[in-house]
Amino acid sequence: MRLHEMVAERAQTAEILRPVRGVYIAGTLLVALLLNLLSLPGFLHTLRPDFIGLTLIYWVVYHPRRVGFLPAWLLGLAMDVADGSLFGQHALAYAGLMYLAILLHRRIVMFGMRQQVLHVLAILAASQAVMLLVRLTAGSDFPGPLYFAPSIVGAILWPGMFNLIRLPLRPRADPDAV
Amino acid sequence: MEYTPPPFFKRGPSLLTRFAFFSIASMVLLVADVRFNYLQSMRSVVAVAVYPLQQLSAVPSRAFGWIGEIAVSHSHLRRENEQLRQQGLRDAAGLQNQQALAAENEHLRQLLAMRSRVPRKLTAAEILYAPRDPFTRRVVVDKGGQHGVRAGAAVVDRTGVIGQVTRVFPWLSEVTLITDKEQAVPIQVLRSGLRGVTFGIGDDGTLELRFMPVNADIQNGDVLVTSGIDGIYPPGLPVAVVSKVERNTAYAFARITCIPAAGVNSYGQVLIVGMDPRQPDNPVAADDLAKPAVKAGP
Fold this sequence. Notes:
The complex is a heterodimer. Chain A is 70% helix and 0% strand. Chain A contains 8 helices and no strands. Among the domains of chain B are: 45 residues; 158 residues, Rod shape-determining protein MreC, domain 1 (Thrombin, subunit H, Beta Barrel). In chain B, strands 1-2-5-4-3-12 form a 6-stranded antiparallel barrel. A 6-stranded antiparallel barrel of chain B has the order 6-7-8-11-10-9. At the A-B interface, helix 2, helix 3, helix 5, helix 6 and helix 7 of A face helix 1 and helix 2 of B.
């Protein structure tokens, strides 16, 4: 890949945004929780990505000082209760997700969209693997390879989520411009 | 004197420390939940906090239903009304017959000095959503402890048993479906009266009737109803229909596959059937109590 192509790709993900308010971050996480709880018909249900995971990755990668472990962990507990899974399963998975995302955030922001998708896929799959490990230890059976489908769907949705979260943060048109 | 750099870039504990702290906290919760079942009260607290969101998340599907209702045409409604009227008339005839039979049954039971059947408390509930958890088959319904629902109660829909209440929150409860792995329902074959237990295998739309001898009197198409001997499921509710019987004499038991009678996977209204409060004492426990006395005798 030539240098100017790399620069062009990087330009997709690097732009100057307006400052983020804490209320907005909390709002996006709440909407993500709602999307996770939404009742979906049939097959869509097994494909639904982890919206909380995606949103957490976004905020950690682009504003690593704004979202800490504690909100992620509490959201994990909320998901555990709403899902009826083991108490602490999602909390542990989100702790792992936060660790990976914070570890990799300097690298991820340097990449264009396509490479970011791969990173997000890895992080989401790792958080699902943590949950799988917990359930296997507790005595459940492996539910089949389709178990990892939500991670793939989540990674595919990453560019959309990225732009959606940024939409209200893009600078307004400058009224003084000629 | 020890030198410490001025705290210019103080950022709290390191990443690894924070990760280790929250992982260990999660693992403590997991162990307390799985091994000791300690955390029901903590779960309830979180459940109350999540409750408004759960209600809110059901809004789109409800709105979808409303839009469907509004968009129904007048002629369609009239036709449906007519059909329902006829259905009601037919049902009324059956119901009158059934009332007479119930009275006769009660009378005969009194003559034979058998326990009479008490009517159970019924609670209508609506399925809010199915959790994302791919390891289990569960649904969440909109009635909970505040509405008198207790853990263990059977849940039925229009056509048969769909599951059992396994966890009760103040305003919601979790129902484990009969197709969940290892979820057991005591049944009776309607045709022959044979008793058995069906187990879910974690797959939608299939149940397994286990521990039936190879020569058991079971055929394809046999209707399985709840036996009621467990005291949890009321007797006579349809559970499943036998779809395949494999008799291989190399094994001790026949492999019998069934299809659930109720729409276990479809969303909608369900009834939560309360438990019979008058359970007899467990006879095994009474035997155990009596044994030491016999031993001490000689």
